[in-house]
Design goal:
Shape: globular
Distance between the termini: 22 Å
Largest sheet: 7 strands, parallel
Order of helices and strands: HHHHEHEEHHHEHHHEHEHEHEHHEH
CATH class: Alpha Beta
Helix content: 40-55%
Oligomer: single chain
Strand order of the largest sheet: 1-4-5-6-7-8-9
Strand content: 5-15%
Number of strands: 9
Bound molecules: coproporphyrinogen III
Radius of gyration: 19 Å
Number of helices: 17
Length: 344
């Protein structure tokens, strides 16, 4: 059995002092991140520069001593590697030429996927030898549905109008895109594990946008396929699912995907998660990232409520979504100190 607290919690152990890491723990709230990003050029240049990507992954660990490092990259390197060129414009988020027809779909090219992603895999290898001995290394990918929304919309979206239209009006085309993403994402995650990733998180940020029937098919289906593939091809490597916004369908997600851990968004009620999810897998979450902006006693109370409710079973402390840029670094320090001194 591993001595790394994060992996022990994912294997189902309850720890008196729960391990923690934070989604988007490397990012713009840290001045040293902003400096390294400027040095890299663009955000994608940073993702494809193994030395600098290792550096920004390590920055939050040096300050706060998280129990896990998450590979610094982005979910949109998959469309980029499929030759749907991704650009990040300052203050605007990602922009891609949208996929909305058979012709667009046929322009995607999955040959050489892992060659394109070689710099990201080099970052994983660099991290495996650079992180502290008790820190675990998390690899990740976007879930097919969430990645497909960016590919079809051509960027971020409020209502996923184009993605849903394609899903319902051209179901065969949509299914082909999803199948391609399941295959590419699986190959990529297996390659991350072979490069040294010790656990995998699948980010389905927009899972909550789908009605039940489509949620079961396009959120649960691909997550189950990816989890089954990892469990069978790389036994012992745990998978965490993050079906953000799934509501009561969190339970079906956990039961049917067979994930080892589930990441809770901010809205999931703690007692419900303790009763319905925690007997079935390790839970992770779910502090509101805006409480980390507010700080003070509201932050302390929010942290303690989560630790009290979820600390009785297998649990990893995290946020309900990523750290936002206005977060004062001192508030993250306050959180880390409080977590490390907790004995439940
Ligand atoms: O958690 C970590 O520290 C690891 C790195 C990581 C990033 N993105 C870095 C990043 C991870 C795991 C992601 C996942 C990701 N990327 C998701 C799923 C999780 C979530 O946050 O919902 C999504 C939807 C994306 C797509 C994406 N990347 C968007 C929409 C944007 C623009 C919005 C924004 O915050 O600027 C990004 C950019 C991005 N990814 C940044 C970082 C640190 C900011 C880029 C910058 O430096 O300007």
């Amino acid at each position: 059995m591993t001595a790394k607290p994060f992996l022990r919690a994912l294997a189902g152990q309850r720890l008196a002092t729960p391990p923690f890491w934070l989604m988007r723990q490397a990012g713009r709230y840290l001045p040293e991140y902003r400096a390294t990003r400027t040095q890299a050029g663009s955000f994608l240049d940073l993702c494809y520069n193994p030395d600098l990507a290792v550096e920004v992954t390590l920055q939050p660990l040096r300050r706060y001593g998280m129990d896990a490092a998450i590979l610094f990259s982005d979910i949109l390197v998959i469309p980029d590697a499929l030759r749907q060129r991704v650009a990040f414009r300052e203050g605007e988020g990602p922009i891609l030429p949208p996929i909305r027809s058979i012709k667009d779909l046929d322009s995607l090219d999955s040959s050489g996927l892992l060659d394109h992603l070689a710099p990201v895999l080099a970052t994983v290898r660099g991290l495996a030898s650079a992180i502290p001995a008790t820190t675990a290394l998390i690899g990740f990918a976007g879930a097919p549905w969430t990645v497909a929304t960016y590919m079809i919309e051509g960027g971020g979206s409020k209502d996923f109008g184009h993605a849903k239209h394609l899903m319902w009006s051209q179901p065969d085309l949509f299914a082909r895109l999803m199948d391609l993403l399941v295959k590419a994402t699986g190959d990529y995650l297996i390659a991350q594990i072979d490069a040294g990733a010790e656990a995998i998180q699948i980010f389905d940020t927009w899972a909550g946008a789908l009605p039940e029937t489509e949620f079961r098919r396009w959120v649960i289906g691909p997550a189950r396929a990816l989890t089954e593939r990892i469990h069978s091809e790389r036994p012992g490597v745990p998978v965490i699912g993050f079906p953000r916004g799934a509501g009561v369908l969190y339970r079906a997600y956990v039961e049917e995907t067979k994930v080892d851990g589930v990441s809770l968004d901010t809205a999931v009620p703690l007692d419900w998660a303790a009763a319905e999810l925690q007997p079935r897998c390790t839970v992770q979450g779910n502090l509101d990232p805006l409480l980390l902006v507010a700080g003070g006693e509201a932050l302390d109370a929010g942290i303690d409520r989560i630790l009290t409710a979820l600390g009785k079973g297998p649990f990893i402390f995290n946020l309900g979504h990523g750290i936002v840029p206005p977060t004062p670094p001192e508030h993250v320090a306050r959180l880390a100190e409080r977590l490390k001194s907790w004995k439940g």
